[in-house]
Prior knowledge:
By secondary structure, the chain is α/β, with parallel strands linked by helices. The protein has helices at residues 14-25, 41-46, 48-66, 82-106, 164-167, 184-195, 215-227, 283-286, 322-336, 365-370, 386-390, 419-431, 436-440, 451-460; strands spanning 4-10, 30-34, 110-113, 115-120, 123-128, 131-142, 146-148, 161-162, 176-180, 199-203, 231-233, 236-244, 247-254, 260-265, 267-270, 274-276, 309-311, 350-352, 357-362, 375-381, 397-403, 409-416. The chain has three domains: 4-147 and 275-343, FAD/NAD(P)-binding domain; 161-272, FAD/NAD(P)-binding domain (3-Layer(bba) Sandwich); 347-460, Enolase-like, domain 1 (2-Layer Sandwich), CATH 3.30.390.30.
Amino acid sequence: MEENFDLLVIGGGPGGYVCAIRAAQLGLKTGCIESRGTLGGTCLNVGCIPSKSLLNSSELFYKAKNNFGNLGIETSDIKLNLKKMMSNKSKSVQILTKGIEFLFKKNKVSYIKGKGVIFSKNNVVVYQGEKKTSYKTKNIVIATGSSSVSLPGVKIDEKNVISSTGALSLEKVPKNLVVIGGGYIGLEMGSVWARLGSKVTVIEFLDHIIPGMDREISKEFEKILTKQGIKFKLNSKVDAVKNQQGKLIVEFSNNNNNTKENLECDKVLVSVGRKPYTEGLNLLKAGVKKDNKGRIEVNKKFQTSITNIFAIGDVIKGPMLAHKSEEEGIAVAEILAGQSGHVNYDVIPGVIYTSPEVAAVGKTEEELKKLKINYKVGKFPFLANSRAKVNNDSEGFVKILADSKTDKVLGVHIIGPHCGDMIAEMGLAMEFGASAEDIARTCHAHPTHTEAIKEAALAVDKRPIHF
């Protein structure tokens, strides 16, 4: 037996490492167990961070090649150096993962490398190669995240049929790329490779892309991406992916009339969702219960069926988002320290980092109709926003949904430039129960993209100034 802890966190992703740091700040002797060899989890190593690096680089490449001439910036002989672009991505990841190690040292969190297995409610054994070490702890937090899922009969080999991980490390630009799944990840990675020269086709099972987001935003987004050259096969089910003499054939059929189609391509990106990663934790023997979707069941204090074992992030119910995991990690640490940690699930933003970006917080129109809540809508297009106009970046709009009686903001949906940052204002407003009138009466700097938010708030009461 090596060491006794107040808290052992299994998983060093956004939820786990943040939980560990906050617990240590609150005076708990804390250790964080991570099997990957680097901290940051899927998000930092093979998810959010490297994908944003490629999204940014590919957008700059695309604009330099196609748009700079219109602005009077003349360029010639622009070339893609994919190896260098990938190297820049990897360097960013390395710097940030080392940054978390520094934060662990600064906050006196013990970084334990290896795979953690729960042997009892107070005992975790860590396996690292041949080495096996046992630790005692008063509390355990499970923060092991999620892994990619595929479709029946479609095997991901990360060479030809790839997950988002493989899509972040391709050695050359595929001539034709088929993306299975029209959600956040598929559209982001599809955008990257479309900008770099791939002909991209997205196959989506539903009759619309970005399931779960406001339908009006979804329609507008599809229209913009189509204009950018991405093709869509909606309401379609993938039946098989076959490799025929080095070429991949994707077989799919229409859900309505069962019409069968084939697409030939170089690579297939499977992006149909993720599942909680709980394998090898010994949960059954430890007595930790899961629901019928494989998620760990927790109460409002994030306690599992074993009261001193907690779970956060992708392994429990809710959106699989890094920032949701972080909030839960902080909440658990504060609960363990005797404080009142909590998460407001009504105000968790979601962002798609394409160009234009898509961002949302709160309820969609479809959800409000289902809940039979009467609401008002205020919309304002970026076409009428002076900053967006002068930047030649005026696609999209801001949409605010407010309660018909109280004027309280219930949901905000934006498609347009910089909206991944702009949504923070609306999250803060909703956290404090703001009305559309409150936002309309708040002075916004001119000329900025955020003025579109003020105008949309004015539009809730049918009084926008510039549209």
